[in-house]
Amino acid sequence: MATATSLCPSARKTEHTVHLISPKRHRVITLRLFTPLLVLAGVATSAQADGVDALKRFVQDVKSARASFSQVVTSPDGAKKKSASGTFEFQRPNNFRFDYTKPFEQTIVADGRKVWLYDADLNQVTVRNYDQALGATPAALLAGNSIERDFTLTAQPDEGGLQWVLATPRSKEGNLRTLRLGWRGNDLAALDIVDGFGQRSRLDFSRVEANAAISLQRFQYKPPAGADVLNQ
Fold first, then answer.
1. Are 82 and 16 in contact (CB under 8 A)?
2. Considering the domain boundaries, does residue 222 fall inside one?
3. How many independent structural domains does the chain possess?
4. Which domain holds residue 166?
5. pTM of the full structure
6. What is the chain's pLDDT, residue by residue, as a tens digit (232 residues)?
7. What CATH number corresponds to the domain at position 35?
């Protein structure tokens, strides 16, 4: 989860970029590939309230978690779709880790002070300050503690068997147009993200372990030997 820094390591990968942390227009490592049916009138109000409540309970009660995810990125015109998969871990406050395994190997690690983004193809690590990289992003929403400070929450109609919440960034400076979170009961099931260019990213989570015992060492990062390290 964000958007954390979106870096463009190569033209081949730029179209797959997904902003989970905060984008810059200069070169940065990318998160790529890490985006309705109307409900019946009689159940709309209670379903919508449950979605917002589920998000608030998640932030209050879930202090750590790990999950697998699959991700599909769709171009603004809907013509192109790219897929990816990996694992996600977080521990409040502000520690998270994305490990993308397919189709490209990427790792994104944050410890509350720094965010490291590693692209295995380039053997390149980009390092940014946490506050600069995150802001009002999906990653910050999932791993942080201040959702109502950074986002306006609006209940959405049920869709696809999930209860949805729209989280709108209060800041207008980022590249995030909309962010929706889908819930199955109290469990986070999906993220649907649309960036400022109209590109949509849908992440579906599976094998979610709430309040998992995760070592803080998982959020400490040491660049591989010989990697090119860029500080921003």
1. yes
2. no
3. 1
4. 11-212
5. 0.75
6. 333 332 222 223 433 444 454 444 333 333 433 322 222 222 233 334 468 888 888 888 999 999 999 999 999 999 889 999 999 999 988 899 999 999 999 999 999 899 999 999 999 999 999 877 765 567 766 776 567 777 889 999 999 999 999 988 887 777 788 899 999 988 899 999 998 899 999 999 999 999 999 999 999 999 999 999 999 8
7. 2.50.20.10
